[in-house]
Design brief:
28% helix; eight-stranded mixed β-sheet; binds aspartic acid; four-stranded parallel β-sheet
Length: 344
């Protein structure tokens, strides 16, 4: 890995705990210049670190697709001027935003590294400093040929770098807040940052960055649970204004085998809805050939999400539906690995 003083990183601050302080009525984001005061270590980097602050700064619980569009457009606009980008973001929806950006940025040849923290950067035991400093290190890293070591949208958190569209927040309080249950980390940080080059995706060709900002958000998520009523299933699976439904199933993709449920699924698929099967389990994948309850879904026209996370599946649907009006095309592409989001 070679680093020269020519590296340049753009730090994009969107909000989140990392830049918050106590206001008397809960934590609220503060001005970015104060983050730089809180982390004087940043001055030790020998390359240029510029910053860009979103207005307004938000708790990431308020993230909307409009913010992803702004982020993608900003990265496109600044792309040639920087070797990498670090996005400071709240942890609550970081996996959604990183998933979305992974689909919205095409031909990405530079790192876009999301990070944040569980404790504000100004607090004594903060995890924010290490997360920020290492995320910048990753974003600036280039190999001997000058290529980015991680030309991907990824999340750096608690010593691990994981692919953005494989990430999920698993802990509300521990520093170890994220997991990539179905894909090994892209890097692990100890004394050195060890990159897992067999897992990192590199662009197959040199091509200009293209951004896709047309997102279709008409997606509902239905979590199957014992006691789910026919009315609830009907409202979601046959609801108007809904183009796709993520069905969060049990285990390897199983749902209720009762005829009333299968009938609703059939009616929904026949009515043109895109139905995507994602397991509620943290790890493993959907296999609708294993049990009769899964087979019934497959026969009714439900698409397998494989080992997609719900965050990744939602982002993939937003992106594909924004790109294609034809639902059959969307269904075909859902089962293809587009950005490393599924294991096949
Ligand atoms: N609520 C905060 C947010 O997502 C939590 C965090 O940043 O960790 O913005």
């Amino acid at each position: 890995m070679k680093k020269t003083d020519k590296s340049a990183v753009l730090l994009i601050y969107t909000g989140g705990t990392i830049g918050m302080k106590e206001s008397g009525h809960g934590l609220v984001p503060f001005d970015f210049s104060q983050i730089l005061d809180e982390v004087p270590e940043l001055q030790k980097f020998t390359f240029k670190i510029d910053s860009y602050t979103f207005d307004p700064l938000i708790d990431s619980s308020d993230v909307e697709p409009g913010m992803w569009k702004e982020l993608a457009s900003l990265i496109k606009e600044k792309y040639d001027g920087y070797d990498g980008f670090v996005v400071l973001h709240g942890t609550d929806t970081m996996a959604y935003s990183a998933s979305a950006l992974s689909f919205m940025l095409d031909n990405l040849a530079k790192p876009v590294i999301f990070t944040g923290s569980q404790l504000p950067v100004g607090s004594l035991r903060t995890d924010g400093k290490e997360n920020l400093v290492s995320a910048i290190e990753v974003a600036s890293s280039r190999d001997a040929r000058g290529r980015a070591v991680v030309p991907e949208v990824a999340i750096y958190f608690n010593s691990q770098l994981i692919r953005g569209n494989r990430a999920t927040k698993v802990n509300a309080t521990a520093f170890d807040a994220f997991r990539s249950p179905n894909c090994p980390p892209l890097a692990e940080a100890g004394i050195k940052i060890r990159y897992n080059k067999a897992v990192i995706r590199y662009p197959s060709q040199e091509a200009p960055l293209v951004i896709h900002t047309n997102l279709d958000t008409r997606v509902a998520i239905l979590k199957i649970h014992p006691g789910i009523t026919e009315q609830v299933a009907r409202n979601v699976l046959l609801g108007s204004g809904i183009r796709a439904v993520i069905i969060e199933t049990y285990g390897s993709g199983n749902a209720i085998s009762k005829p009333w449920f299968t009938d609703i699924i059939r009616e929904s698929a026949a009515g043109g809805k895109i139905l995507l099967n994602i397991t509620q389990c943290l790890a493993g994948d959907v296999n609708m050939n294993l049990y009769a309850t899964g087979k019934a879904l497959k026969e009714a026209g439900v698409v397998s999400g494989g080992d997609l996370t719900t965050e990744g599946g939602l982002a993939k649907l937003f992106y594909l539906m924004g790109e294609y009006a034809d639902n059959e095309r969307v269904k075909l592409l859902l089962e293809k690995n587009l950005k490393g989001e599924i294991s096949k």
